[in-house]
Amino acid sequence: MNVDIVHAVAPTFTRGFRAPKDGTNEKDFHSIRSPHYLADLLLPGHEIWAYFRYSEISRVDNKRITSDRIQRDAERLAGFGYVTAMVNSIHLPDENLAIAKETWLTTVPQDLQLPKDDSGESDEPNAEQPPDEKETNSGFGDDPPENKEDPGMKDKPGVVLNVALPSGKRLRIRIPRRK
Predict the structure, then answer these.
(1) Does 118 fall in a domain?
(2) Distance (Å, whole) CA 154 – CA 125
(3) Average pLDDT, whole number, for the chain?
(4) In the chain, at which residue ranges do the beta strands (DSSP E only) sit?
(5) 21 with 92, same domain?
(6) Which residues pair with 160 in a beta bridge?
(7) Within a 13 Å sphere around the CA of 106, how many CA atoms are in the beta-carbon half?
(8) Does 116 map to a domain?
(9) Better-predicted residue by pLDDT, 153 or 113
């Protein structure tokens, strides 16, 4: 898992399951057993996706995978602060319970936490938008601003990535299509 500059721009993806042959209870099939304390300390607001699938587990466990089981697994991972990426054909009964918790608010000692105004958060409902958000009103507009240096770019649509950093700063990355 990354806790570096790359992680500040994009989420990290990790495997959240394992399939030991001697597994007997649900916890045996989880490779994630706690919040990511180092990421919480160094990069509050980080985003780590926990990939969880059941094909290997069902081969070992021989029990039917139910929606209740998937819900429990998703809630467990979300409780540790991971964004759940559950691979299965069954929908979660309550997706709201599987939203990643902000673990850095509880795992990092209070005296080491960033002040709210440094983390990009604001309690004010009418807080001023950052300058890059004023341009498109949301910071995530469908149409990126035209590239004034290369007028031919607007004729070659590519991929536009809009990234929100934990600090609240937003980046717009434009990747042109290959010829």
Answers:
(1) no
(2) 36
(3) 75
(4) 12-15, 48-53, 83-87, 159-164, 170-175
(5) yes
(6) 174
(7) 9
(8) no
(9) 113
